[in-house]
Amino acid sequence: MKYQRSSALFDEANQYIPGGVNSPVRAFKSVGGVPVFMKYAKGAYLTDADDNTYIDYINSWGPAILGHTHPEVLEELKIQAEKGFSFGAPTELETEIAKFITGNVPNIDQIRMVSSGTEACMSAIRLARGFTGRDKIIKFEGCYHGHSDSFLIKAGSGAATFGNPNSPGVTSGTAKDTLLARYNDLEQVKDLFANNQEKIAAVIIEPVAGNMGCVLPENNFLQELRKICDENGALLIFDEVMTGFRLAFGGAQELYGVKADLVTYGKVIGGGLPVGAFAARNEIMDHLAPKGAVYQAGTLSGNPLAMRAGLKTLQIIKNDAGFFSRLEKTTEILDTEISKILTEKGLAHTINRQGSMMSVFFDSENVSDFDEAQKANHDTFNRFFHHMLTNGIYLPPSGYETYFISDAIKENEIEMTLEAVRKFESL
Ligand code: PMP
Predict the structure, then answer these.
(1) Which residues pair with 238 in a beta bridge?
(2) Is the ipTM of this complex over 0.85?
(3) Which of 103, 196, 313, 417 has the fewest C-beta atoms lying within 10 Å of its C-beta?
């Protein structure tokens, strides 16, 4: 494969954009090499600036669950574009999508739309603090809830990839209100509550983590967190930015049968346009402005193009009875077959998977928290990444990310992917 054009574009971008990218993981810094600049996406495939094509396992980091540029979503966008791009005034469409989501997801009465997952999580903890009158939150090491100050403490995703999970610029005043626990470690959570009685507003968690690679909750972790929050008058926040409408229509709440107090969304909910959302029961959402005193706002919140793309995407998923089991089956095949090939090659590894999210960790037996994710062999991961890239398979460029499998990945794409894995030669 040739990367001349991407290389030239990256050089130029570096002069005008910090690090040449608008979001750090895109720079390929941890895996090395030049990031591939994309120009088209359709179905399961991406085409880069040098006309190389790739089977896409990132899918815009989750939103393109139907595959790229789905014709029905495209049609909706065209129709809406003719009517107007943005009004900054309420539309019927916003109620339509709010009604659809609250009617199809367990345990939420009202939803507020924003423009990113960061905004959704940032607003959710403000609301939790306003509702409980408490300041502190508990988050888990390796979880990523966007880049707002309270969350950039032992954060996953790009923050972990670049080895700076604690960002300069976050004040010590803010940091002191974020308490940390190990993922899957209930004892630490209990200790934090015991040592901070009536001070903890909320526990926020990725119910299936995707930002330290894919890490699953074990031993009824989510159910136990629910109990601990209830015993201590704290809210449980599920960050379903990745998992919402991906693991099941009702997300992790439905899959694990746990009712969170506040739920945040992003990615799939916008069908590829910039959208986030947070939702809860009436008692909590009534505290939000303009009804209540907790302030939150957005110039482009509920943007009609984004709402159209989101609603159409969700309707397509909802009307397809076999959707989630099909995605899960595809992911299961990839998991088992990739694992078989790596084992035949004598490469120690573990693959974590839930629904259509999965990650391969090299030289690991079990990865159930951030420490274990860090101990995986990231050098082998980086070699594997580049091998797959040059064989036309676009994987997330970091061992701290998850693959997002789309419905456009069919037998042919699976076979091409496995063929590429078969050619991988470890050192
Ligand atoms: N929460 C989770 C679980 C995420 O994975 C992400 C982004 N990957 C965010 C929040 C932040 O979303 P955004 O990048 O849209 O701000």
Answers:
(1) 205, 263
(2) yes
(3) 103
Using the mean position of ligand 1's atoms as its centre, give its distance from the Cα of residue 143 in Å: 10
β 110-114/276-280 pair status: antiparallel
Domain layout of the chain by residue ranges: 4-69+321-422, 72-318
End-to-end Cα, the chain, rounded Å = 21
Residue 387's CB is within 10 A of a number of other CB atoms, namely: 17
36: tokens are 């591939």
239 noted as active-site residue: yes
Q: Which CATH number is associated with domain 4-69+321-422?
A: 3.90.1150.10
pTM above 0.80, yes or no: yes
- Say whether 144 is catalytic: yes
- d(CA 366, CA 372) in angstroms, rounded, equals 7
Tokens 């670049």 sit on residue: 162
Helices and strands counted in the chain (H then E): 15, 14
- pLDDT tens for 318-358 read 999 999 999 999 999 999 999 999 999 999 999 999 999 99
Among 23, 115, 121, 245, the mutation site with the greatest number of ligand 1 atoms within 8 A of its Cβ is 121
**DSSP string spanning 117-166?**
HHHHHHHHHHHHHHHHT--EEEEETT----SSGGG-SS--THHHHTT-SS
**Is 267 part of the annotated catalytic residue set?**
yes
CB of 144 closer than 6 angstroms to any ligand 1 atom:
yes
Closest ligand 1 atom to residue 209 Cα is 3
Q: Is the CB of 182 under 6 A from ligand 1?
A: no
Could you say which of 3.40.640.10, 3.40.50.11750, 3.40.630.30, 2.40.30.40 is the CATH number of the domain covering 72-318? 3.40.640.10
